[in-house]
Task: structure prediction
Amino acid sequence: MQASYSVTSISILNISLYWISGFISSMLFSVTAHALDAISPLNTPVVYRESKPWLKSSVQSENKQLHELKIQLGKQLFEDSNLSSSGQISCATCHIASMGFSDGRDFSLDNQGNPLPYNTPSIQYVAYNYYFGWTGRFQNLQDHLDALMLNPNLMNRDWTKLSQDLNQNNEYSTSFKDAGYNEISRVSISNAIIQYEYSLARPSRYDLYLLGDERQLTEKEKQGYFLFKEYGCNSCHQGINLGGNLRQKFGIMASIFPNTDKIKTRDYGYFTSTQQDEDRFYFRVPSLRNVSNTAPYFHNSSAKTLYQAIEIMFIKQLGISPSDEDLMLIEVFLNTLEPIQ
Amino acid sequence: MISQARQVSTLIIASILAIPLLFIYINAEMDNMSVSRELDNLLLEIRHNNTELSELVLRSRSQLDQQYDSLANSQLKFSDTMIRFKTSLLTSNNEMNVHAEVVYSLYEVRMQQLEQFKSLNAQIKNALRYLPKLRQQLRPLLSSNNSLLLEAVDQVVSGALNFRLFNDLTILDHSNELLSLLENPRNKHLLNSNSPLGAFIKHARNFQVTSKIEQALINSILSNQLSDELLLLEKNLANKKNKEIEDTKNIKKILITYSSFLLLLIIVFTLNRFHLINRVLFHKSLSEKDQLTSLNNRRSFIYRLKRSMKNVKQNDQFGALIFIDLDGFKIINDNLGHNAGDIVLKEIAKRLQNYADSIQSFETPICVARLGGDEFVVLFEQLNREDVSRITVSAAENIVATCARALPTPYNSYPLSASIGISLFPDHGDDVKTILNCADKAMYFSKSKGKNRFTFYQPSMHTD
Result:
């Protein structure tokens, strides 16, 4: 009797472990086996503290295989320089996967070789943003994609012409069909690219820490996290993406542009889109995810290192003169926001 | 039969004509319904979203929600729905355009307010977190030499927290006085921009400004003009929809009244037509039939004779006129009275008609008529040349036999017979008068020969 009881309880435990691990692995879809071991529920009784699932479900009522094919197609399109009229640049020219889907330059170059007005932001966690672009003038990725494609200095490509060209390419026409698109058009091309962009998000050590694995952060990193909250960085850099869901004035406590002669159009922020005075110097609060990989910082690339950027934030946004140690600890914490490779 | 078929076909045509009308009517109603349903759903969604936004703002304001994710998400949904709403309203009805513009501009204002709220709220949260921290730093600096200043700092900090709780502007005024006290030139040694006290004053002032703006902002967000406007729009749409429904109902009423009126007209018309046809037939029979015997009268006989003569000439055929005069009728009339005479005439007419009916089916059109008095005629309208003599002879024989048969009981004691004269046309003449005359001559010949017989007209008779 006793034996049979223990046998059933073990099998129940096994099944529940199987389900829990399946659930977690589906949430953190491509976490490596190592990371999975680390957050195995045997080590951490609390599976996750936040009630919301970590991943926004971009997959709705669609089978997983088809979705994978869409992502693959999106990747192919993302890296195809034939999408631009010059055949020289692709999306991946400025959003390089190895550099946090940014390009490490102060300003990326357009198809004439001239620098663009804004620094290229990372797009790895674009799935959790509510606005796009430095000023947040795009409400959705489709608008953003449209603007880039039609910009004569960037892709400079008409959607209908692009659709026709891709239609003539046998490889593309089959892979579009395989991915479940009936036709090659603005909608299907954008959808594939956007699905790919959504699929880039990866959990970081910080997320695993929040999910309940205390060992993911070192003592210093935890101290940095404490300071991050203590000094009020997380007043703006909050939410699932640590930013990306509000606009804030750049230079609340002290003007970021003391010398008015040197102010360029881009520095007026959202004002350039709305022409309304209350939007002057307002920028979208960028996500801090993957921040350590995406130097230089700010819309005008004025901070070359993360340390500098944090310092500027402290002085101009918080109105606090930080100690070197505080800056160092916060930088250490921000490094934990890198995606797990 | 023919007239009935015609009436039925009129009805069918009328209903076929009505079908497209009905189709248009039903279709229009359905169209209206689907458009208004879509609009209603969108309005419902917008109103729900709008209240949700207010709720989320209050949540953020009261620190129940530390993040702006749900607010931003709701904003995103809101703008999505709004754009769909605008296009749907613009495409569907023009008179709501003004409302749509107002709603859209209010929506834009609201979105702007929400953006402003988020950034102000972030700044305020920051200040609330940082002011106590600064107080901690100030405590050792001030406690040694100026406890009054420390008291003021404490009050400013607790004033800030109180203001968050009670939203009472007098608290801010009080804090403001305290801050002016702290800025007193006597404290100059403590007040450079990098000193903790300087930072404290700066942050506190910033807090006051942003708090005031935030409070006004929250008031205007919660007063929610958009909601009022949406309500008005919904009312207008509902009114419009009701009016449309009323209109369609009215049209329905008119259509039904009209079609029932039409149906009534058709029925009345049909009945009237039926009645008229009956009347005409009745009058026709009156004018064509002999009143006593119901045989054809002289007039219709003449008409048919004329027609027959014409046809016969055209088709190279023959016609035969059998002229019958009753023998012994005058005696019955004189002895038994006119009534008895009438009955006898009727009897003879019946016999003649029966005979005509018996051969009519397989021979030629036959007309039996009473010309007046005791004179009857039987007209064979069309006969082929080879049949003429055979048929006329057999007919004449039969008629003679028929008339010679004994009369019914009260009159059977009176002998009655028929003298018959036969003329053929076109052989014996080509006009009515001549033919009748010839037949008459032949009949008299039969009478003179001893009655109860028949005679064909011979041209020799004419010479007498």
User: Anything to note?
Assistant: The CA atoms of residues 347 and 408 of chain B lie 9 Å apart. The longest strand of chain B covers residues 318-327.
